[in-house]
Amino acid sequence: MTETIAVKADRLYKAFGRRPHEVVKKLKAGASRDAVSSLGTAAVIDASFEVRRGEIFVVMGLSGSGKSTLIRMLNGLLDATSGTVTVAGQSITGISAAALREVRRKNISMVFQHFALLPHRTVIDNVAYGLEVQGIGREERLARARTIIRLVGLDGWADSLPSELSGGMQQRVGLGRALAADTDVLLMDEAFSALDPLIRREMQEQLIELQAELGKTIIFITHDLNEAMFLGDRIAVMRDGRIVQIGTPEEILTDPANDYVAQFVQDVDRARVLTAASVMEPVRSVVTITGGPRAALRTMRDLQTSATFVLNRDRSFAGVVRDRDVLGQVKAGETDLRAIVRTDAISVSPDTPLVDLVEPSVGSDLAIAVVDEKNRLLGVIPRVTLLAALGNVSTNTGDLPVIEPPATISISVITETLRDTALEGADL
Amino acid sequence: MNDFRLPLGTLVEGFIDYVTETFGFFFGFIKVVFDGAYEFVDLLLVSPPFWVIVLLAAGLALATRGWKFMAGSIVGLLVIVGVDQWENAMDTLALVLVASLLAIAFSVPLGILAAKSSVASGIIRPILDFMQTMPAFVYLIPALILFRVGVVPGIVATIIFAMAPGVRLTELGIRGVDHEVVEAGAAFGASPWRILRQIQLPLAMPTIMAGVNQVIMLSLSMVVIAGMVGAGGLGAQVVASLNRIDVSLGFEAGLAVVILAIFLDRLTAALGTGDTPVGRILTARKRRAQQALAA
């Protein structure tokens, strides 16, 4: 399969009640959800999205927002009242029951909120269930199930009954059952919502690892924004049956489509979602290493800071110089900045979550440097920027005044030194 | 107003007459089949000496509940022998077994149908209410006309009377299976038949077995009534004792019914929970075999 789109939903509507088609017709004509409530309940209204292969696509919304209905339309457990669902290039809307079963066996499996294990079967028989339905012989399916059991960390529990397992372990069985079926797409319906917070975090991390290893396409339903932000490559936010925004976690956080989303993301654990790249500031006090101490000193004086970032000739990040050291060099008539560059400045990659920046930021009075994989300086994060971002002071952190480390030597001293040591007196 | 009367009874009578004339051959066929089934089971129970049956019952008791139930069963059955009601009791047991098996054979599929389709449920439910609340004697009248005196009208009346809880509890059991588990079956591409066989029936089994237990109990309670139309067995003894105001015979035959009832009730209740001594041994053995295979 070469398509890049694993699952596609096109203008999906789902209405329950006595006259669902009437409801959809009115909605399409522009009626509101409340206006049609006498005819039936509109659970999903005009939902369109594409899920790319290998992506974790999270559908997030509060209970009653229609997300469970939406996910059940993706594998045909519920029929769409209007619109089409395409799985692996094949439309599953209006196909025969037998063809639909075939799609479920081959292309799309599901993990359930309350695990939905077969209580009368052992763990291994549960994991092998999808394979059994696919008609694979007992020996082979048990062998494959055993591999999956190891993968999800249930070694030694194969012959236990689900009731003998803790909630987290039961959901590993549920996950194992979906993985064993070996479909490209995994639907996960509030899969971790019934678990303890600690177990939930552990399962989320394991899911990300498994996804990286197996490259499955995962459609994950949750009402927990932190979970959505942690897992999702992209997130669709649902409200009252409609998808109000689709975007990456950062887009949703920094650029909410409306007040509802903005209010929703207010409480999110921003430290885990926002990355260094999303809050960093342009670098202002920077000199190249070949510029010499006089240029460095002048930069610091102009910006009134006590330190400046230093770049190598190839623009890669070299370190930081302090005003005292530079002043000393200038007075001594030395010209090589290399001698005084401090390489202990903290540099991080753009993908580092803010939570990992707090400690280094507190331990240093310098801004944190953000560098790419070629060690080029992309931006800096002064402590005040970090605090502002964590505290959600403003969604546009760029407007904040940047306070560089304050100058420790008075401007007049610097100016005097520069004048005294000026070779030609040309600089000033 | 005084001379107006709804001719309901006359209508039903006309209907039964019509049915008797038109479908006589069909009811003749049913009579032969039911009679044959009863005679066969009765032969199995009556022909061996009583201790063979007592031992068999004791074995069943041990396998399903353990030695206490076994001891109780042996004592109870020996009491029946002691009051000289053994053969009657076996006749009754044969009637109960045949009637219950047939009632279960009809009621479980009907219950499944009712669970799968709300329309079917809506039709079946009032019919069950009717069947269950109509005084049982009333069934005997058309049954007598259709099948003549003997065991068969007793069996038919018993089936009709005893079916209702089998249907109801099967429907309840299947509808009560965790919706998500059924969804899981569908989500992995299982056919409705496979979901029924592998998920709904096993998970509904305790409730269905409670229904089976009720069917058997109701069958036993019909035994005396069946005795009135010549079904023989303990029921005939009770009817005879009633006619002769014979307290001692009445008590002995009645006690035999009670002993049979307790035995059958405890036996099927244990099967319903699935937690039987034999079941435990089998599970442990299966597990050991699987672990050996895995190692």
Automatic annotation (TrEMBL), chain A:
It comes from the Bacteria. InterPro entries: AAA+_ATPase, ABC_osmolyte_uptake_ATP-bind, ABC_transporter-like_ATP-bd, ABC_transporter-like_CS, CBS_dom, CBS_dom_sf, Gly-betaine_transp_ATP-bd, P-loop_NTPase. It comes from Cryobacterium cryoconiti. This is Glycine betaine/L-proline ABC transporter ATP-binding protein. Belongs to the ABC transporter superfamily. CDD domains: ABC_Pro_Gly_Betaine. Gene3D superfamilies: CBS-domain (3.10.580.10), P-loop containing nucleotide triphosphate hydrolases (3.40.50.300). Pfam families: ABC_tran, CBS. Keywords: Amino-acid transport, ATP-binding, CBS domain, Nucleotide-binding, Transport. The lineage of its organism: Bacteria, Bacillati, Actinomycetota, Actinomycetes, Micrococcales.
Automatic annotation (TrEMBL), chain B:
Gene3D superfamilies: MetI-like. The chain crosses the membrane at residues 15-34, 40-62, 69-86, 92-115, 136-164, 215-235, 247-264. Keywords: Cell membrane, Membrane, Transmembrane, Transmembrane helix, Transport. One of its GO terms (cellular component) is ATP-binding cassette (ABC) transporter complex. GO terms for biological process: choline transport; glycine betaine transport. Residues 89-268 form the ABC transmembrane type-1 domain. It is a multi-pass membrane protein. It is found in: Cell membrane; Membrane. SUPFAM superfamilies: MetI-like (SSF161098). PROSITE patterns: ABC_TM1 (PS50928). PANTHER family: GLYCINE BETAINE/PROLINE BETAINE TRANSPORT SYSTEM PERMEASE PROTEIN PROW (PTHR47737), GLYCINE BETAINE_PROLINE BETAINE TRANSPORT SYSTEM PERMEASE PROTEIN PROW (PTHR47737:SF1). Belongs to the binding-protein-dependent transport system permease family. This is ABC transporter permease subunit. It comes from Cryobacterium cryoconiti.
